[in-house]
Amino acid sequence: MIAALSRLFFITCLATLVAYISLHFFGSDWAIFTAIAVLLTPLIYSYINLARLKAYIQSDSVENIPLPSGYWEEVYFGLKRLIKELKQRMRNIQEQHDHFIEAFQASPNGIVMLDDGDHIEWCNSIAERFFGLNFKRDALQRINFLIRRPEFVQYLIKRNFEEPLLLERMGPSASLSLMLQAFPFGQKRHLLLIQNVTDLQKADAMRRDFVANVSHEMRTPITVLMGFLETVQTLNLEKAQQDQYFEMMMSQAQRMKSLVEDLLTLANLESNALPAGSNEVKIKTLMALLKNDAEALSQGRHAFSFDVESNANLLGDEREILSAFSNLVSNAIRYTPDIGAINVLWSVNNEGQGEFSVSDTGPGIASEHLTRLTERFYRVDRSRSRDTGGTGLGLAIVKHIASRHQAQLLIESTPGKGSIFTLRFPKERLSA
Ligand code: ADP
């Protein structure tokens, strides 16, 4: 301010001096003329600079304006610095904003921001996928016009956001279960958080099914056992009859024991997240064990062949491998009628993978059952499984052991002709 006033004072003094000199040498007319000329010069200069400034502001390029000289240089310089600072501040704010958006986009949960009238202010791409939204198209639309599920509309109307809301059969293929909750923030706005709980729901349903299945499997032998006990207690039976009842009780107890043992095996396998160890498992020794057990179980009812085509041994957990192999062999024996043939083969295929296969001439399995055979308690022929002491857990155990050895369980079967169960091990699991 002082600088501006002193400049004005200087110009006024200059005009007075020039006017005085002109008056002395050229007369009063020239004095007025020269005084006005001296006063007008800075005014014209200011107008020119103002006009330039206006032009640069209109073209949004004030930063590039060349600096004039004198007082206007300071004005331009100050303005340029201010604009530079403002632009930098805006860039920082934009960067922060972009980081927030990136973080919200990276979230595995759906996020929707609603204003005080439940209009969509912003949503991430997961929320777009969950609800079939498109932010560019649906921004500022009321969310209950776009998500029309009655339970969701009620949730918004009631505004009791303490509890989450479960929406089932959502998503593009109506296969998702979504847990949604609204959280208030800012001025009556809400943040909708949407979590995909499909897997949790499935695991929960599986757990419930499993408990129901185990209870059912246990209840039958317990009921039968109690019936026999009552009979033996209340009736005065002959020794031979009593022995017969005891034998039947023993078989029911054996059934429960097998079930508990298989459950424990499964639980142990499931609790062990690490891959199986890599001890050398001698296939020839294993085959000899399997042959002995198979012949004892079959009691001459089947024709067997046990072939070892490759010298390669397996690298894995011997106990688990034996359990998986003997499950497949015992299934073949249990489901193949008398005089059937069972072939057990160890070989290495063209890709260098080890294959343990058990083929039988049993009843075979219809294709619709094949994908479900490894589910716990899934049986094609329930009564045949029970009659032969099956627990319905054998193939589930085999599948777990296979995955712990990075192996695949392949099942081929033709109803009426027989089945081939193959465990295919990667070459990394074979000894040199
Ligand atoms: P289970 O204890 O009932 O044998 P598994 O899990 O071992 O239970 O097998 C599941 C079902 O697969 C069996 O109930 C049976 O229906 C079918 N299955 C398994 N192996 C064979 C086979 N070799 N031939 C025909 N069906 C089989």
Task: Please tell me about this protein's structure.
This protein has 432 residues and is α+β, with helices and mostly antiparallel strands. It has four domains: 2-88, no CATH class; 107-196, Beta-Lactamase (2-Layer Sandwich); 205-271, Signal transduction histidine kinase, dimerisation/phosphotransfer (DHp) domain (Helix Hairpins); 279-431, Histidine kinase-like ATPase, C-terminal domain (Heat Shock Protein 90, 2-Layer Sandwich), CATH 3.30.565.10. It is 56% helix and 17% strand. It contains 14 helices and twelve strands. The strands form three sheets. It has a five-stranded antiparallel beta sheet with strand order 2-1-5-4-3, sandwiched between helices. A five-stranded mixed beta sheet has the order 7-9-10-12-11. A two-stranded antiparallel ribbon has the order 6-8. Helix 1 (2-26) runs antiparallel to helix 2 and helix 8 runs antiparallel to helix 9. The longest helix is centred in the middle third of the chain and has 37 residues, at 198-234. Bound molecules: adenosine-5'-diphosphate.
Question: How do you describe this structure in short?
Answer:
By secondary structure, the chain is an alpha+beta fold. The chain contains 14 helices and twelve strands.
Anisotropy-based shape: elongated
Q: How many strand elements?
A: 12
Please summarize the sheet with the most strands.
Answer: 5 strands, antiparallel
Look at the helices and sheets and give the structural class: alpha+beta
CATH architecture of the largest domain: 2-Layer Sandwich
Indicate the proportion of strand residues. 15-25%
- Catalogue the ligands: adenosine-5'-diphosphate
Fold-level CATH name of the largest domain: Heat Shock Protein 90
Residues in helices, as a percent range: 55-70%
Distance between the termini: 93 Å
Low-confidence stretches: none
Task: List the total number of helices.
Answer: 14
Biggest sheet, strands in spatial order?
2-1-5-4-3
What is the CATH superfamily label of the largest domain?
A: Histidine kinase-like ATPase, C-terminal domain
Radius of gyration: 44 Å
Tally of discrete structural domains: 4
The CATH C-level class name of the largest domain:
Alpha Beta
